[in-house]
Structure formats: C-alpha cells, structure tokens
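Chapter summary example: a protein plus uridine-5'-diphosphate.
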Amino acid sequence: ELERHLQEASQDKGRRTMGMATTDQEAPLTLVAGGAGFIGSHLCAALLARGEHVVCLDNLQTARASNLRALEAHPRFEFVRADVVDPLPASILHRAARFTRVYNLACAASPPQYQEDPEHTMLTCVLGTDHLLRLAEQAGARFLLTSTSEVYGDPEIHPQREDYRGFVNCTGPRACYDEGKRAAEAMTFDFARTGRADVRVARIFNTYGPHMHPDDGRVVSNLICQALSGRPITIYGDGTQTRSFCYVSDLVDGLMRLMESEIDGMEPINLGNPNEMPVNDLLDRIVGLTGAEAPVEYRPLPVDDPRRRRPDIARAAALLGWAPKVSLDEGLAATCAWFATELAEGEALACA
Ligand code: UDP
C-alpha cells in the first residue's frame, strides 16, 4: 500500500514539476540510487537537511518503503521506483542535465540477500554502475560509488589499507558481490581516467543503525531482533571472528564529506569504525543492553566468511578530516530502541 502511495506521490510530483517556475525547474538535483535502503534513506534525509533536491531511485528489492516515511512529504524529495539494471527511467533521463551529484548505493549488501539472486547482484553492480556513470557523464555531475570492505575478501593484511589489493575467492558464494563491486570500482576509475566523469569511491565497512531490515540476516540486526523477541541467538562459527561496526550517522557524514571534497578522485577511501571486536563481544553488549535470556545457538561459519576485518581510516582522516564519533554503546542503544519500536508495531499489525 505504502509502495503504491510512494509511486503515486512521485508521479504527482513529476506532474507538478512540469508546471513549476523556471527557478525550480533549474534547481540542481542529487540522485541517490538505493536511496530507500538502510544507508540510503539516512543519506537522503541528511542531503535534504542541507538543502539539496533529492531524487531517490530504488527497486525496493531489499529496502523498505517505510524507511522513507519521514521524507515522502518533503517538497524537495522525489521517489522513483526502478531497477538500476534496466536503462534509467525517462523521468530521470529527460532532465539528466540538472543532476550535479549522483550517489550509487544500489545493491543488496547483506550476504544472504545478495546471494539469493547472484546474477542480479553482479548485474546491479556492473550494469547499474554503468547506467549511473553514463548519467553523471551526460550531466557533468560528480559520481560517488559505494564500494565495500568486501573487495578485500578474507584479508591477509590487518587492518585493511586502501592499497591492499585483497584476497577474494572469485569462485565462491560471495563473489557475486565482491567481484561485482571490484568491477564497479574498475569501471568508475576508468570513467575518471578517461575524463568522462568526476568520481569518488568509498569502501564501506560494517555499518549498523535504525532502518536496517529486521530480516537482513546481518549480525547486528539478527542478534538484536533475536534478543528482543526471546528467540535463540545465532552465532556462526565460534564467534571469535572479528568485525568493526560503524554507526550509520557517522558513515553518512563520511559519504557526504567525500562527495563534496576536492580531492583526487582516483583514490578509494575506507569509511568505517576501527573499533574491532569478536562477534562474541558484540553478543555480550547486546545481551547487556536488552537483558536477553535467550539461549545461544552456534551454527556453521558461512563459506568464505572473513576471519578479521578492520578499516585503516588514516586516508579519510587526512583527506576528509573524518572520524567516527558515535560509540558502540550509544549506537547499539539507539538501534535497540528503534528495533523495539519496529517489532512492537509489527506485532500490533499482526494482531490487528
Ligand atoms: N554472523 C553471526 N550470526 C548471525 C549473522 C552473522 O554470527 O546471525 C556472523 C557472520 O558469520 C560474520 C559476522 O557475523 O562473521 C558479520 O556478519 P554480517 O553478515 O553482519 O556481515 P559481513 O559478513 O558482510 O561482514
């Protein structure tokens, strides 16, 4: 219902745009592909807050329309439902010249979700990036690719610096995403090298916060939802594998700084929180916060699951003056509170 509503709202706005005053018609636009997703929806909100006119493009494959609930009535916000694998819709192409910024966040990013349709994941990375780069080229817009720490695979170097070339298994189940993003980076840098687009590439490490999908399958969302609903808490492997978790507002701040920075775009930049910990420690914190008494269920470690991951963020600090500010305890408390409300709303709907 909400999806239909969003579609209608965007069509209405499209019609309204046709009749708007010249100044409005000429207002610069920012495209956020994947803008209804977890990180994308926070990015759209932050861009609106700084006065940008945001066109959010999303196929709602893994995103939730409810992530946009707070934005849909905003006069500078438009939602367009489309898949970046397909040629961009006419509603975007007909005003291509007005875009000054193109953010590409479009891709399922959680392992169970990107592995569900691996061909589509690979095409989203490759074709999607090509379509959006061509739009940026046509518009003379700056393009930002959200790449991933997964380009480092199961890393032999720790922490991971941007000049580490990675250890990815191109025949494994994570390859559709890892290699897809590596190809997307290659294409983005080729557009820059040949002068076709001004680009920025962020390599995003594990990020958490409100708007994560409860069924995302990621460790933070799984553990919090399991703890809050009293279901067994799933730990894959023995829980000694490490990750470094960044709160979403810090990440969005990094993305916007990167987009607006006048750096040489030929260098990818790690964005993440270097506070590394074993998954077991994350579990302890979530149990502490929620008071959960649910049993822990150990499951096999997924194939190619990286043993360790931690960003070296020296480059982001030096070039963008960026560092994460939100502590894990603060961020987890906000995330638990958000999931608690979501779960209560879900239960209320289920009972209705
Ligand atoms: N993980 C876990 N329990 C879960 C989900 C994930 O122990 O319910 C583990 C997973 O095997 C990995 C880590 O937590 O070692 C982070 O997984 P996630 O899917 O969040 O991100 P990624 O593997 O992409 O870093």
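Key point: DSSP finds twelve helices and 13 strands in the chain.
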